[in-house]
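Sample 1 of the test manifest.
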Amino acid sequence: MSPEEFRRHGKQVIDWIADYLAGIESYPVMSQVKPGEIRRALPPEPPEHGEPFEDVLADLDRVLLPGITHWQHPGFFAYYPSNASGPAILGDLLSSGLGVQGMLWVTSPACTELETVVVDWLAGLLGLPDHFRTDARGGGVIQDSASSACLVALLAALHRAGGGRFATHGADRPYTLYVSSQTHSSLEKAARITGLGSARVRVVDVDPRTLAMDPGHLRALLDQDVAAGAVPAMVCATVGTTSTAAIDPVAALGEICRERGIWLHVDAAYAGVAAICPEFRWVNDGVADHADSYSTNPHKWLLTNFDCTVLWTADRAPLLGALSILPEFLINAATSSGSVIDYRDWQVSLGRRFRALKLWSVIRWYGAEGLRAHIRKGVGLAQDLASWIAADPGFEVHEPHPLGLVCFRPRWPGLTGAAADQATTRLMELLNAGGELYMTHTRIDGRVVLRMAIGGVATERRHVEQAWERIRREHAALSAPGH
Amino acid sequence: MSPEEFRRHGKQVIDWIADYLAGIESYPVMSQVKPGEIRRALPPEPPEHGEPFEDVLADLDRVLLPGITHWQHPGFFAYYPSNASGPAILGDLLSSGLGVQGMLWVTSPACTELETVVVDWLAGLLGLPDHFRTDARGGGVIQDSASSACLVALLAALHRAGGGRFATHGADRPYTLYVSSQTHSSLEKAARITGLGSARVRVVDVDPRTLAMDPGHLRALLDQDVAAGAVPAMVCATVGTTSTAAIDPVAALGEICRERGIWLHVDAAYAGVAAICPEFRWVNDGVADHADSYSTNPHKWLLTNFDCTVLWTADRAPLLGALSILPEFLINAATSSGSVIDYRDWQVSLGRRFRALKLWSVIRWYGAEGLRAHIRKGVGLAQDLASWIAADPGFEVHEPHPLGLVCFRPRWPGLTGAAADQATTRLMELLNAGGELYMTHTRIDGRVVLRMAIGGVATERRHVEQAWERIRREHAALSAPGH
């Protein structure tokens, strides 16, 4: 494709996306296709001869769109938001167009140095401590996902816990990892990947009301494990759990970690970015004094399209110790001088995209005030929704809900336990099949609970109002006698 | 940014990229900036108020471009090519614009099903065995990089070697991994990440001429290790090593693996895609009969921008066994039915982009014949270059060089050993500082050798001719008496 063909087709694609975003409310939020339907509509063999780009776009409309669940739809309330704003998409497009590899500083110095600048910017915007900055002993890096950030943090923790032994001798000591029942599953996955095995993941109790990790139980488990010969490597505290946005007591957990020299990672994938607003900065209480590493996802709630997780560490040495390997083909004068960062040593993969461009583009387009306004909009709408639910005798809302996620349960007169859960699931499936909104569920204390996560770019008050009206209406219909 | 603002700025970005690609030869291939130069030119604090998108583009030109090493420049011969063709960029743009998460089938069925279709297409195009297809026991998946593909393959191998024990009990047995001195460093990194530790990476000898792994030595090492109590988990054979594009004898290595029930992974990151041409299909000899897993990078030589590695496995069960975890918040009817693929279970991270769009777009735009023509162009130019070098008494060329990479060494009359290596390095640095071309080095038998990898989208005969002329001229100048 020549540059001129690219210019022509590129503008077609831009128009396609602009039209898509402008008309996104015309689609059902959640795809309604059956398994195999999309695949069967595609040819089983690739074309021998090249095809016009218009055919690709036509098949996107005809074949693929029915199989898309529209994460950018204003009625998307499932999981957590995964924002793709205009400047993010364009920053990502520039990254694709430049097509540079950022594995080493020398393979594109701007790719590395812009990343250093924007992760330092973001640390400042979130009020994270100065020792997370690159000019101190720490530093930030963009990872593809929170899963990878937690994996990399665990590797650094194991490196430190083993006195550097992990890189050479691996998991030859009984290293243990501490999570709660509410911690993201990627931590258990990281324990499996790093050769600890799921049996070395120790599950700390949570407060039954807030679902936050119980420091007293952490202390008891550590005592017990150490007495049995374990080598505690890392505690993972969560700021905004995946299930209910619960916030672990980082300061109290951090005290325990500090006493015993255990690495504290703070997984703030969802909620960390809320700290861009001074009134929500409390979510990170304890981080400055206690976190060895910290990660949050601009690709969830901060207008930057996937993939963009930022991981900071208070001391980059264990991270580099865990992950640096320098084969001959990567040796170069800049690396040898010790005066540059090679971010390949901060991640699992060697290769890396120029992801800083999209975060840079987002921060510049919105400015700090625009980013704050976006977070405040989501929190405000969620608080309104929670108040409507709390005021309705047909529902009960889970407390607390300080940010953009509201968990709630319909009441089903006459139904208890599994029967009530089935009714709740049925309500959710009916609502999702309706196409106006998409929500997912979790369980609290064993009971099925509905989740509405508010924070989409396009989500306005009317969308939340409509969703709530629809939920009430369907619930009333399902609750009607004789239904 | 509203859809209409996106439309306007999007077209600016498309024009910027089209102009960039049309004028790419006006830039020095390798960035000439000094460490810190880009960073110092950027503001230390983020903007409080949003800025016009035009300012972002202006700073891209003014501040960032001098710090870009232009991987799409026709004079880029360093490392391996990292192609970003027009249709790939546009496929990626569509992915960013749709902004869907493909972690589960249900979170966007088309994202999963298109991926299944294109990896099956590519298996067919490369002549890979039918048991790699999704409808058989195997299946393919797009990973971000070959590093991740090898890591995931190792996890599957460990799962099988431990009879499923690895996921629960981790690296509690003396598992070993077999590579050669030429194997990519990501394998050692994978051994570190999986808790084996680098001490459990066993290095098999290579044939001193071809640099291919020696099956006899593999057998001897395995005998010795097993006698010492080791549990061999995986052998990694390489099709096209990073250093010299050496090709390990997959069939002979595979026989040994089969006898002993050891997982054979074939890392064909660079060279695997050459098999799209029937005349180069021999690179994969032995794969059909012996490989438990196989990976190659469309993001290197097959016109698809980073990140796009495809990993296939002959049996997906150990992969899923190693990586599946199903927390409550991901439970959904489609997954429970067992009738869909959830690709999150095939990779490290939970989240995933819609990367299939770019590979689909590339295959449709070029068609099989266009992809073959691209590979043939690179090989043809490399063979011409190798013949020119071989005919010049001032140089010696490393044999064999069947694909797009040519390794060669200038002769330095009167200099031997380290002195000759220094002269070679100096020649390379002078050439790279000239801006017309960019190449990197490796070592063969301890001696510094220059590498020219040909396969860029924009690279034509004249670029290779100019590069060779420049190399000869600088070499002659450095070799002149009294220099």
